[in-house]
Prior knowledge:
Blueprint (H helix, E strand, L loop, with lengths): L10 H23 L23 H21 L3 H21 L2 E2 L2 E2 H22 L2 H21 L26
Antiparallel strand pairs: 1-2
Amino acid sequence: MNLGPFSAISNSSLALGVPSASIVFLLTAVLVSLPGALAGATGGDSAAQSTTYVPSISDMMIGTIQPRHERIWRAKEAGDWDFAAYELGNLRGAFGRLGRAHPIEQNSSLPDMIESVTKQPLEDLKGAIDRRDDADFGKAYDELSEACNSCHQALNHGTIVIGRPTGASQSDLIFGKAGR
């Protein structure tokens, strides 16, 4: 094979060089695609390493659980049972995320605590919503609120008391308008 100025390179050298160059290229691509992967091993800046934010229990309660709890009530009051059912599903999901984000609170399993106090009230509330039963809804909603309060008491946050919403809603939601 005539390689011009590279004629001194033998076929065997070329056969070994191409795979070696490919391996070097591949390793370089992997290392470049993992920024900060070696920062700890090489004494790199810890700020370059990614961090994971986990909202506090309070943030999750105020930002996800309490608004959903209230919207269930507001939806029922407006006669929008479909939205009440939707928010009940969201509330269950929010409780699940809270337990996964904070598996232990004050040396106790938070998911187990949530499950033990909310399981029956959530089932009763779902049944009342499915049946569109005002009386059972009110009873189940109050039981869920009391379940919340029992957790607050157990975790030394008894100053937080949940009940039926009163006064005008601060929400921008419009109930009963879906599909119109």
